[in-house]
Specification:
Layout: H1 3-26, H2 85-91, E1 119-122, E2 127-129, E3 132-134, E4 137-140, E5 143-145, E6 148-150, E7 154-156, E8 159-161, E9 164-166, E10 169-171, E11 175-177, E12 180-182, E13 185-188, E14 193-195, E15 198-200, E16 202-205, E17 208-210, E18 213-221, E19 226-228, E20 231-238, E21 243-245, E22 248-250
Parallel strand pairs: 1-4, 2-5, 3-6, 4-7, 5-8, 6-9, 7-10, 8-11, 9-12, 10-13, 11-14, 12-15, 13-16, 14-17, 15-18, 16-18, 17-19, 18-20, 19-21, 20-22
Length: 264
């Protein structure tokens, strides 16, 4: 046999020996299990043919965090949360005083308004320029330049340039330039001066008055009274020392006359 044939025969035997050794190591003649217990490779992933590869696999949703109720807000007014202008106005609407919707007063609702207890006071040293209209009592100790009108009582202890209308009226150490009308009683002390006409249901005077006087009932002039003007009263008392200059009419306001007994 030539050298070439010997080399070919040796190569074949070498290849046959390698295959036999590999088969011996890879399997067991008993149960056909791997001899050296090598774990099998992980199986390749199997894709669903009906699902797109790019489509993500759905993940179970996490439990939602509890949501705090902020509808009440702080103090019941909705502070701490965003609200619309209408919602805020509804939560913070002002109380209503009178007959108009949304609160406030109108010319119609004022007739139904009831004045609160107590009196309105204009303190000494206060100056008011303009009219005063009220449905309650007034204590006027400052200076007022304007008309004053109320259905309540008036205690006057200051200076007023303007007309005054009220119920019962007490004028003490005051100066008034304007007409004064009281639906009730009127009292003027010795330290007061009034330049204007006076009207009352009944009256007591002890100050200085320049103007006409009309009293439905009794008019009492105390000793320090100085009156320059006509007087029309239901009945009259004049204390000693009082000075009056003008026409005085008492009793009925109807015109009356005295028949001359000497005429034929």
């Amino acid at each position: 046999m030539s050298a070439k044939d010997n080399f070919a025969q040796a190569f074949k035997e070498l290849l046959s020996g390698s295959d036999s050794e590999e088969n011996t190591q890879s399997s067991s003649p008993v149960n056909n299990e791997p001899v050296n217990n090598v774990p099998p490779k992980a199986a390749a992933p199997v894709y669903d043919s009906e699902r797109s590869i790019a489509e993500p696999v759905p993940v179970p949703a996490a439990a939602a965090a509890p949501i705090k109720d902020k509808s009440a807000g702080f103090g019941g007014f909705g502070f701490g949360r965003k609200q619309s202008a209408d919602t805020f106005a509804a939560n913070t609407s002002a109380p209503s005083y009178g007959g108009t919707q949304g609160g406030g007063f109108s010319s119609d609702s004022m007739s139904d308004y009831t004045a609160p207890a107590g009196a309105t006071t204009i303190a000494l040293g206060t100056v008011v320029i303009g009219e005063i209209h009220s449905k309650g009592d007034l204590n006027l100790y400052g200076e007022i330049k304007g008309n004053v009108e109320t259905t309540g009582n008036i205690n006057l202890g200051g200076r007023i340039m303007g007309n005054i209308i009220g119920n019962d009226m007490t004028i003490t150490t005051s100066a008034v330039k304007g007409n004064v009308a009281a639906s009730g009683a009127m009292s003027i002390d010795s330290g007061s001066v009034v330049l204007g006409d006076l009207k009352a249901r009944e009256a007591q005077f002890d100050g200085q008055v320049k103007g006409n006087l009309t009293v439905e009932g009794l008019a009492h002039f105390l000793s320090d009274t100085v009156l320059l003007g006509n007087v029309s009263v239901g009945s009259l008392i004049i204390d000693e020392g009082a000075r009056l200059r003008g026409e005085i009419c008492t009793g009925s306001r109807d015109r009356f006359d005295i028949t001359d007994p000497f005429q034929g």
